[in-house]
Records
---
Amino acid sequence: MTPARAAPPPEPRPAGQPVRGTRQICATLAALTESARRELLTFDDPAACLGLPIPAPFLALAGTCVRAASERVATVRQIVPRHALSSVAAADAAGAIRLPGRARLTPSIPFKMIVVDRTVAAIPLDLELLYNGLLLIRDPVVVQALVRAHHAWWETGEEVPPRPAPAGALPAHLRPVLEALLAGLTDETAAARLGISGRTYSRRVGELLAALGTTSRFRAGAEAVRRGWL
């Protein structure tokens, strides 16, 4: 009898799915953060983009995605290098820099990262900028290793207390909505561009109009100008 041959070892699974191209990256980030239900963990360096030729809509989308998730997800934990917060605040004339959810400062971060519900993660292909491409990771072993790395950095970090918006100022999460209204975008287009659901966008439009003291989208722009919000 011919001895049975051993089965060949399984082909190794790829570490993750690379995503390139601005449109594909934006769609992936929006879908990733929109899928969050319980927890969102990040390593982020907001100052890394300063002075680089990255389109403003991409930067706005990246920030909006995390802010939108923080409104519905119970746990949002961001780890930011200490130097980044002061650099971004110095570049922001309005002093409106606020980090959604809970944030801690550390001397450095190992790389940029987003982990959603401990099941999927995204890291930049160059470990620095998501705009240059990202690796979408679903392998449970790799994702859990990234979660452990985040936990280790979190334990050594310094808590950043939340900063309330100045009285009478436009809430940061409503500025993209105001800009979308002024640009004449449809609700569907604006929601897709901001990486949020149509229902969330409609709710924010209502919140913006209430803050402006009007029920007219047409009057919103004029009232925003009168208040110095533009």
---
Amino acid sequence: MPTGPTPKLPRGRSAAEARPYHHGDLRRVLIDAALQLAAEGAKVSVREAARRAAVSPGAPFRHFPTRDALMAAAAEEAQRRFRTEIEAALGQASPAEPLARFRAFGLAYLRWAMRNPAHFEIISTGSYFAHGSSAELTRDNSELIALTERMLTDAAEQGLLRSDDLKRIQIAGRALVYGFARMKLDGHFQRWGVEEGEIERMAEGVIDLFIAGITKR
């Protein structure tokens, strides 16, 4: 994690549901409608988003000529909301403590994913659209990867890490939070004897265990 101030990240919108359509705001409403449809587990299409926005079926195609275009915009919005969560979490962690920041990043990732499963699905899997088609999403993911690289580089420079293989640590951390989030979203914890109310506390515990494992004693 970086030792300097966290770069200002794009702020997302908190409203998850589509707002009533107002003139000039159709693109915004269609994106919110697509996110709402995904959250409901419904099939997302431009025409269905138009129905939710209470506009004619052809009106949205000026903004989104294809479903992929709509889903790319929805993913970019979901990613902005995710980064807002990351920014808030890092704002609570000292810039001088890179592993505390790494922990805050991981917990923010998990909490957001578990509380926004449809949004997480959109930005983390290829089931809705081809992620490579969105330059903004690609750039944003690269920035987040670079952010975790800087966190680990700072930790290494402070002599905090057991290993100097930062790429391996970074990928292991990513696998941990992604895998934990998928276990939650796919309903696996009950078979492991972890009740719903215990999952977030378990998330904190596994991240702390991971950090203890990479920290030099």
---
Amino acid sequence: MLRREFVTVRNRLTADDVREAAVALSQRALELPELAHARTVAAYVSVGSEPGTPVLLDALRARGIDVLLPVLLPDNDLDWGYYDGEGSLARVRHGGKMALLEPSGERLGPDAVSGVDVVLLPGLAVDGRGMRLGRGGGSYDRVLARLERAGVHPALVVLLYDSEVVEHVPTEEHDRPVRAVVTPSGVRRFTGN
């Protein structure tokens, strides 16, 4: 129910709204010290009215940062591949779900995410504790569990619209807080993460 409400609000955004927010979001994200010092970042290609990532992906590459992008597997887990510019992406339809833009090159395996410095996470909302509400597919829950099992702690950052920073989101036992949220108007950090 809550997820549907956030998606409904996003779906009301115009293409211009999404484009303008993406430029501002990229500018704010690039101010993060975690990204300034990163060698490798796991990110994602936004779809539809999600907060836009293409500008940010290109800016990260321009800084010489290796960018890993997810490839959705049949069981909803994520494999990874390198982003080498817009031409390295292929549109892939997964069953009845929306088409995703995924890296078309070599697959690095699900554990490749364990070697990154920062994970830029999609989401629908984040609350004052840094708890992220995802889309409900569980793909990123698996990623975060994989990182925990590997004993690695990259900076976890969620990219959202300003209205998606809320007082409280429901959580489950396996949920993990993020270090920061980046919105078009700025960055909010969460203590202890």
